[in-house]
Amino acid sequence: MRVDFTPIRERTQKAIPFAAQYTLEDIRSAAIESVESMLNLIADLDDSDVTFVPVDPEANDPYAAPEEQNIGWTLAHLIVHVTASTEEYVSVASVISRGIDYPREPRLRYETHWKSLTTKLQCEQRLRESLRIRLGYLDAFPDVILDGRWERGERFLELFGEVDAKAAYLFGLNHEAGHHAQMLEVRRQALAARAEPEAAAG
Do 90 and 138 touch, CB atoms closer than 8 A? Predict the structure, then answer.
């Protein structure tokens, strides 16, 4: 199933009430759907497409190396970013589902370096690996989900309220879904760039 994150993005509903309407099976289905949508997005692409650097006037990554802060993100880059972020959220979700409050630090995050993914096959492997990881963390939830919380800071608390296990998991999927339109635009540019020399040769 595809979760409608509009109430969270428009801040018309707080995190815990939003998440409460979804069962763990709903969340499992949404996790699978998110990965499958990205696999489908790159299914007909080739290695040059997933490593194509798009034009992105809004590119601004202050955490990147200086020479990379304003470059457009390739599909490979986007894939390693969203999978790492989702895995961070769902790993915390599995901890707080057992009634353990989790602090802001240390972050449970590891992100594969985007330059290490140079082929479509590697992108597909990363997506399938991520699906296995995120479903594994969901399987780590106890039968009775306990009332742990994730400390996210005062500003986050003001905007979204407290975060329990299901809310943490869904926030990871929300972040991922927020990049899908960007992925589609990079795909569009990659295919357009591929078509230009083909047209010239024809």
Answer: yes
Long-range contacts of 175-182 (CB under 8 A, 24+ apart): 175/82, 175/85, 175/86, 175/89, 176/34, 176/82, 176/83, 176/85, 176/86, 177/3, 177/5, 177/34, 178/5, 178/9, 179/78, 179/81, 179/82, 180/37, 180/38, 180/41, 182/73, 182/78
Alpha-carbon separation of residue 152 from 22, 93, 102, 149, 163 (angstroms): 22, 13, 9, 9, 8
Amino acid identity, position 91: S
Instruction: Using DSSP, state whether 102 is helix, strand or coil.
Output: strand
> What b-and-e string marks burial along 47-77, b requiring 16 or more CB atoms within 10 Å of the CB?
eebbbbebeeeeeeeeeeeeeeeebbbbbbb
Q: Which of 123, 131, 41 is nearest to 76 (CA)?
A: 123
Mean per-residue pLDDT over the chain, rounded: 94
- In this predicted structure, the answer to whether residue 175 has a pLDDT above a threshold of 80 is yes
The residues with which 64 forms a beta bridge, in sequence order, are none
Q: Enumerate residues 6+ apart whose C-beta is below 8 A from 153.
A: 104
Q: What pLDDT, in 10s, does the model give residues 46-95?
A: 999 999 999 998 887 787 777 777 899 999 999 999 999 999 999 999 99
- CA-to-CA dists, residue 66 to 8, 70, 100, 170, angstroms: 33, 8, 38, 32
